[in-house]
């Protein structure tokens, strides 16, 4: 946990789940820059926050916690960001209902007077959220984005200009930058291109040629990523009434493949992204019959599943948390899989060879075998003894 200090107060903040080994803070220079702009400086007057305040993409709830006295609406695609927000509100003595939490799938407010956007890593997610919010923005709305310099590109500014109105940026301070956008109520907008659908290749097992639905913001939303493609070629062949989990499901292609290969299985699709789980459900429903059995869970890994009840976990873990490279998410997923699996149950993982997941799996499970590999990827199998 670290303390964020503003001109008015100090706030104890942490990411979620809180991990003493995690070296990263719950905020960065971009969040601090935006908060200073809202407070006002010699260059700028304070921003009037008495109206409807909407915070988009607040990564760990730092912005929402500081602004809790103004009862903002937070819109995020991240379940973990919502949990972090609630935890940070509590540790700083703010009521849970002082921030209204909406997911990226929820209908946004009808009117927005102050729109604060933490620029996401995914340009597609930014595009989708701006399209959703544009009808609520009016000529007097204050629109400010923030991000680190490496996160704000010409394409980012063009999105604000195309969907909201004329846009300019601030000078960079501590490698952070602000985006100022002036709403144009008369702007002619094209419809949002999301969700995006494409057909899978013809050489990827049971899902060959199937149509995949991708909502904005999920990993590799416009094509099948090469890691998943490699995984699809080496999934286990199983039969019977298995309980299967597609952990970190993205658009659900891996879980769909398991369901098509074994119609008796019940597949649970889990991701911390609301957009991902929505994509997985639409992909599954469009490619299976009415008797196909599946559950769709937005959550923190496998924490919402009872222990010792799963036969097979399939996992392509992310190794980035926003812009930071970290194995913390994979480590959490592996520990969660061991708890959720029944004795004899199996975890199958695909990952970049250089990440060395075999070392973690041997430490957690006591065993790990390599199922397949190429110069870039490996498929690993660990069994709960």
What's the quick description here?
The protein is an alpha/beta fold. The chain is built from ten helices and 20 strands.
Describe the structure in your own words.
By secondary structure, this protein is of the alpha/beta class. The protein contains ten helices and 20 strands. The strands form five sheets. It has a seven-stranded mixed sheet with strand order 5-4-3-6-7-9-8, with helices on both faces. A seven-stranded mixed sheet has the order 14-13-12-15-18-20-19, with helices on both faces. The longest helix is centred in the last third of the chain and has 14 residues. It is globular. The two termini are 36 Å apart. The relative contact order is 0.09.
Per DSSP, the total helix count is: 10
Which series of helices and strands comes N to C? EEHEHEHEEHEHEEEEHEHEHEEEEHEHEE
- Based on CA inertia axes, which overall geometry fits? globular
Poorly predicted runs are none
CA radius of gyration: 22 Å
Q: How many strand segments?
A: 20
Major sheet characteristics? 7 strands, mixed
Give the strand line-up of the largest sheet.
Answer: 5-4-3-6-7-9-8
Helical content stands at 25-40%
Structural class: alpha/beta
Strand content: 25-35%
Mean pLDDT: 94
How far do the termini sit from each other? 36 Å
